[in-house]
Amino acid sequence: MFNSPFIVPVVAMMIPIIAIIMKNWRQVQNRKLDLMEKSTSELTNVAQARIEKLEARVAVLERIATDKRLALADEIDALGHQGLSQARPRLDQ
């Protein structure tokens, strides 16, 4: 079928070349997985911090909603002003 005298040397030279290529390809794939895991853990940390912040805000709102004092409207207004001051950039910096 293959009567060429060059088939055996060509195949013999291709084996180490393919092995080197596959080794490098595997290293690239492992690096991709490491980067994906790192970005996922960073995203998880950001999400956890945001959840904690939202839980704190909900706790304050629950306290205000269940508070029966007469100063309820003042506290709600104070929260509104506090939220606006945090949202606006400060010009004095």
What does this structure look like?
The structure is a single chain. Helix content is 82%, strand content 0%. The chain has helices at 7-66, 72-87. The chain is rod-shaped.
Précis, in short:
The chain is mainly α. The protein has 2 helices and no strands.
Largest sheet: none
Structural class by SSE content: mainly alpha
Q: Report, as a whole number of angstroms, the end-to-end distance.
A: 81 Å
How many helices? The count is 2
Number of strands: 0
Q: Poorly predicted ranges (pLDDT <50, ≥5 residues)?
A: none
The total number of structural domains is: 1
SSE order, as H and E? HH
What's the pLDDT, averaged over the residues? 80
Strand content: under 5%
Rg over C-alpha atoms, rounded to the nearest angstrom: 32 Å
Task: Provide the helix percentage.
Answer: over 70%
Q: Label the overall shape.
A: rod-shaped
Name the descriptors.
single chain; 93 residues; mainly alpha; 2 helices
Task: Lay out the secondary structure.
Layout: H1 7-66, H2 72-87
